[in-house]
Amino acid sequence: MLDLLTDSEFELFRKLIYDKSGITFSNTNRSILDSRLKEKLREKNLATVKEYYDLIMSNQEEMNIMLDSVTTNLTRFFRNQPHFDALIHYVVPHVLELKKQTGDRKLRIWSAGCSTGEEPYTIAMILKEILPPGYTFQITASDISLKSLMVGQQGFYPESRIQGVPPNFLAKYFTKNEKGYQISSELMSTIKFDYHNLRNDSGMRNLDIVFCRNVLIYFDEAAQKNCIDRFWDAMANKSYLFIGHSESLFGMDTQFEFLKTDWACLYQKNI
């Protein structure tokens, strides 16, 4: 059995992961990092943590694989239904009202930290159902995990993963085979999966809606602020931001306005 990380090794990797991704490892979740690194040493047939560190520092692909391995990718279709109720009953109607004034007929959405794609596909199904004729949408779905993005791009999920999808949506947007369910090509065409590290500028602008749920909890205050500021830059006036139900911008120096709807709480860029 490999020894646990020494304090100096833990600090070395903790700082590296933070600098590269903004993800924070503390003593409370140190065991997660330890177990993931043990797996990597076994995979690479390396004897010491230092050897693995030298490998990832000299090979960007291995660095990306390491960052992928330390992220948590818990998600499901229609996760936290009140957010989607707010999307249906409040956010989309207000966005459409603004679109009527500008003549723009396209909604632009970002699912940041999309994991294996359940969130952006959920958004896409909803928009397909509720948008009036003549309106289109494009969803950019990004994550730091290349492995998760590949699952999303394939749009195929075993039966255990499609729990929570309403039966009418399942019949309309999925094709069943002996191994699971395949998302329809029409729905897949509305989503662009893209690798993105939230420490960096996405380059996107004029977004109407941003989902970034259960991602900020892995960042410290400085990285959270950096991420939120980049969302602000990417979003259009009168646009909407969804974050996780256990996350908050309270106490953060940000221009986003807190918005409490009948369905869920969210934030607005209200200028």
Written description of the protein model:
It is built from 10 helices and 10 strands. The chain has helices spanning about 5-20, 30-45, 50-60, 60-70, 80-100, 120-130, 145-155, 165-175, 185-190, 220-235, and strands spanning about 105-110, 135-145, 155, 175, 180-185, 190-195, 205-210, 235-245, 255-260, 265-270. The strands form 2 sheets. The chain has a 7-stranded mixed beta sheet. The protein has a 3-stranded antiparallel beta sheet with strand order 3-5-4. Helix 3 packs across helix 4. The protein starts with 6 loop residues before the first helix and ends with a strand.
Return the structural class. alpha/beta
Return Rg in Å.
20 Å
How do the SSEs run, as a string of H and E?
Answer: HHHHHEHEHEHEEHEEHEEE
Shape by Cα distribution = globular
Number of strands: 10
C-alpha termini separation: 57 Å
- Portion in beta strands: 15-25%
**Whole-number average pLDDT?**
92
Task: Give the % helix.
Answer: 40-55%
What's the structural blueprint in terms of helices and strands?
Layout: H1 7-21, H2 30-44, H3 49-58, H4 60-70, H5 81-102, E1 106-112, H6 118-130, E2 136-143, H7 146-154, E3 156-157, H8 167-173, E4 174-177, E5 180-183, H9 185-188, E6 191-195, E7 207-212, H10 221-234, E8 235-243, E9 257-260, E10 265-269
